[in-house]
């Protein structure tokens, strides 16, 4: 099996946000996709060791923020390579509360989601969530390959798409 | 809620293949993603009305074929806008059997997968599957936005990402 083939799956680059007992927190993610159109439902995979995972379970909701090609690259590292357990990831990050969830301003779309089901899949939890609010603005969504090829970004060890030699 | 925001999620373009009692069949898909790295596991969403859905359930395995930007566009329509119930979708399509599954030749990567779990999510089944074989070749993976913007492709009504005005 050639694990490098996994680099040929296509993804976006997202910041998943939620509440940690009244404090906004979140993490960078790429494994998110729509699974049904009626009702509009998303699946999102988050490592069980990510602090955001337990916060989503406590809160029962999350927002999926879609980064654009012009989004500030430091958001990806700030939300991706530190733990919200020890850090205020929202320090200096502009956001507002929309439909009850913290939504970062530097996105080209967002989805506010209510968790309907969870599936524990070993190292990761798959959240199935209904979209309860969504909107978009100008901007071209950043793809995962754009992040690697143009932004020259790295992949966090807790990502489903992490490969040791990445 | 602005449903058009859903267009800002990023995907690849895939042909999912499996066996229909010894005959190869399959369908076009875009909602596929890696959910864990160890073991390497994929999630794939397929409409319950797609004939391929019941064939995957019977077979217990599928192959995810990643189309490249230079893959023949007629593959997408041929596998996407007809039913394998009535049609031999592999008529004229070059493929070979790899690790027990029919894998089309015109791809830039493939994953042979064994279904480990299924989740019925209303209109769609989410298959969770372990990758048992994978390989890649030259070629840039086709993204869903490339398909819409460059190939000028349409979305099938059974796709999770279908929007009525798409």
Provide a compact summary of the structure.
The structure is a homodimer of 166-residue chains. Chain A is built from 3 helices and 9 strands. By secondary structure, chain A is mainly β.
Describe this structure in words.
Chain A has 166 residues and is mainly beta. Helix content of chain A is 13%, strand content 40%. Chain A has a single domain, classed as Pnp Oxidase, Chain A, CATH 2.30.110. Chain A contains three helices and nine strands, in the order ββββαβαββββα. In chain A, the strands form two sheets. In chain A, strands 2-1-5-8-9-4-3 form a seven-stranded antiparallel beta sheet. In chain A, β3 (32-36) and β4 form a beta hairpin. At the A-B interface, β3, β4, β8 and β9 of A face β3, β4, β8 and β9 of B.
| Unreliable runs of chain A | none
Share in helix of chain A? 10-25%
Q: What's the number of extended β-strand segments of chain A?
A: 9
For the largest beta sheet of chain A, what order do the strands appear in spatially? 2-1-5-8-9-4-3
The CATH homologous superfamily of chain A is termed Electron Transport, Fmn-binding Protein, Chain A
Tell me the β content of chain A.
35-45%
Q: Indicate the CATH topology of chain A.
A: Pnp Oxidase, Chain A
Q: In sequence order, what are the helices and strands of chain A, one letter per element? A: EEEEHEHEEEEH
**Judging by the overall fold, what is the CATH architecture of chain A?**
Roll
